[in-house]
From TrEMBL:
InterPro entries: GATase_2_dom, Ntn_hydrolases_N, PRTase-like, PRTase_dom, PurF, PurF_N. PANTHER family: AMIDOPHOSPHORIBOSYLTRANSFERASE (PTHR11907). This is Amidophosphoribosyltransferase. Residues 2-234 form the Glutamine amidotransferase type-2 domain.
Amino acid sequence: MCGIIGIVGTSQVASALYDALTVLQHRGQDAAGIATEDGARLRLHKGKGLVRDVFNQESMSALRGNIGIGHCRYPTAGSEGSAEAQPFYVNSPYGLAFAHNGNLVNTESLRREMFEDDLRHINTDSDSEVLLNVLAHELQVRSSMAVSPDQVFDAVTRVFKRARGGYACVTLVLGYGLLAFRDPNGIRPLVLGERETATGKEYAVASESVAFDVLGFKRVRDIEPGEAVLITRDGQLFSRRCAEGEVHSPCIFEYVYLARPDSMIEDVSVYKARLRMGEKLAEKILRERPDHGIEAVIPIPDTSRTAASALAEALGVPFREGFVKNRYVGRTFIMPGQEERVKSVRRKLNPVSLEFRRKNVLLVDDSIVRGTTSKQIIQMAREAGARKVFFASAAPPVCYPNVYGIDMPAVSELVAAGRTVPEIEQYLGADWLIYQDLKDLVWAVQDGNEDLKHFDTSCFSGEYVTGLDDSYLRQIEQARSDSAKAARRSV
Ligand SMILES: O=P(O)(O)OC[C@H]1O[C@H](OP(=O)(O)OP(=O)(O)O)[C@H](O)[C@@H]1O
Ligand SMILES: NC(=O)CC[C@H](N)C(=O)O
Ligand SMILES: [Mg+2]
């Protein structure tokens, strides 16, 4: 769930790309990059770290041009190294700079095809570099000096046939324009925006609409599943559905945790969806624990706040800020190693003891994945003097890996996998634990747009809309478990 942005402007775009990346930072904290085209050349700067650390005045001033793309990375493939920071670049055909949010599930066979059939060298372990080369190959075999939208759309049609997985992508086609496309199932989000300026209309494409709010762009619409949009350097927009007939399945975890609440995805307000998650969870608590005795509902900052506030209101129990978040510590879940994640929970969240002392409290989180946060938080609540500590998750138990752009590769690391709710309760140390039902989570999102009939719920249901090769889950567990990553870092 990286963040991506592309802008076709009528004046310099680097600072707008930078600003957009800072509001998409919650989607990826590991690396960031910007590529622009200054009329003659590609300008590219990228590196490891937060957006504010990767760029300085000097690197920004070199990023000249009225058209460009940006990326902030949360790795789901390959390493966390700077070589895999995005955008990636290939010089042929035309010169392509590419940024990708998502994850492919047939990377290895594509990598082999690239090498053996298409004679292309892939230099990293990144699936995004593979995807860029598939696009480059398909453009190459149709290329001519004068690029046409039909050629580009035919190439993307082939990419959709070859690449399986979740992918929302922006590509800078040097000397020509910006190409954006979204996988045939529409798993990862991608929105189109525009703004009128004194010098003409400008377009932008981004992972989340919140990027448009800060840039003063108007959200026009979501890019459709299997659609490609091409915006030429002189501001003409072309689009085509290049894949049809696949089940539209936006990732439900965007609504649970990944996206900012002030974003709209698929015409659904993430904020309102989270409120509805809280309401549904309250109904379940009232059904199953009518004599709950809860004296305060306490969110685990940041993401659960919205759901917890609605839950408290529906229960008629005070909503209290029992944990203060250190605003200088980033998101824990998207950190690459378990040791770092465990340490950062305590660095990040500190209890306000008086909200716990001699009280029965309900702690609310948006989700429980590895249990890193919840286990420590329950202990902190007890240390702060709580009488009873109940725990509620606004999402159902996460029991299966996510393979479409969220780094949850190993079943063995998921606290709910192979455990019953009472067993998880005991492991986390809660007096009782309650999870949202999947049907209620689906309802909470669908209520915002009843045209959405299906979602990618794979981490809750184990159903993978693209299908998976038999050995795939075993392979990613071996390659991407915390222990595999730690072993890689130590060499
Ligand atoms: O069970 P776990 O493996 O701990 O993962 C789940 C937790 O991680 C996320 O928080 P995070 O700190 O990443 O971000 P937030 O500040 O947006 O809530 C999420 O909101 C849960 O609190
Ligand atoms: N989270 C993502 O979208 C990751 C993109 C890509 N798979 C990478 O690892 O860089
Ligand atoms: Mg959290």
